[in-house]
Design goal:
The protein is mostly helical and about 210 residues long. About 65% of the residues lie in helices and about 0% in strands. It is built from ten helices and no strands. Helix 1 crosses helix 5 and helix 6 packs antiparallel against helix 9.
């Protein structure tokens, strides 16, 4: 039988797990790293996004890689610490971390698109799901040359995989994260439908993180 998330947690505990995850997730690594490197405000270049793809537009592959790592690890750390208090706490902390990345209070709730943080949360919560996401993304990206499309499809495959494995609590969380991921990628989806989305090997890159 499916074992849904226990939403009957006491409200103080519920809020603490969610808030803890949000605070970690809201750390804007792309913004901070470019600032500290003296490259200015990453929100004023390219797409204006704080994700790794836009950080790459500063010309620094190192900072872009560090942004990916930071955005992923904040999700992983939030989940692993919260796991000490149970699965429900870990799930809520993961949700909080994702919301924090997408809507950081420090940047007027304008954050990234969530791909790296999705993977980081998956790694801490149930590592096989992170492997499924990474593997499917690589395969799809190789076939389609669309980073955004690969991420969108991979997020759905993670839901199917975790449900198939009987990890219903995780599948519920991934379903919610996927919905948010798709919403944040609405511009990419529009370009995909119009056939104007930039491919990975194209001259122009669209922001996926």
């Amino acid at each position: 039988m499916p074992d849904p998330i226990n939403w009957a947690l006491s409200w103080p505990f519920f809020l603490a797990a969610l808030a803890f995850g949000y605070l970690l997730g809201s750390i804007p690594f792309g913004y901070l790293l470019t600032r500290f490197a003296g490259l200015g405000d990453v929100r004023k270049i390219g797409s204006g996004n704080i994700g790794a793809t836009n950080v790459l537009r500063t010309g620094s592959k190192k900072l872009a890689a560090m942004t990916v790592l930071g955005d992923a690890l904040k999700g992983t750390v939030a989940v692993l610490i919260a796991f000490r208090f149970g699965i429900d706490a870990a799930v809520l902390a993961g949700l909080g971390a994702f919301l924090g990345h997408l809507f950081p209070v420090w940047l007027k709730f304008k954050g990234g698109k969530g791909v790296a943080t999705f993977i980081g949360i998956s790694l801490g919560l149930y590592w096989p799901s992170a492997l499924v996401f990474a593997a499917s993304w690589l395969i799809l990206a190789f076939i389609t040359r669309y980073s955004s499309l690969s991420a969108l499809i991979s997020s759905i495959l993670v839901i199917i995989f975790t449900a198939f494995m009987g990890r219903w609590q995780y599948a519920e969380l991934y379903a919610l994260l996927t919905l948010l991921l798709w919403i944040k990628h609405h511009q990419n989806i529009g370009r995909l439908l119009k056939g104007t989305e930039s491919r990975i090997s194209g001259a122009k890159a669209t922001d996926k993180k």
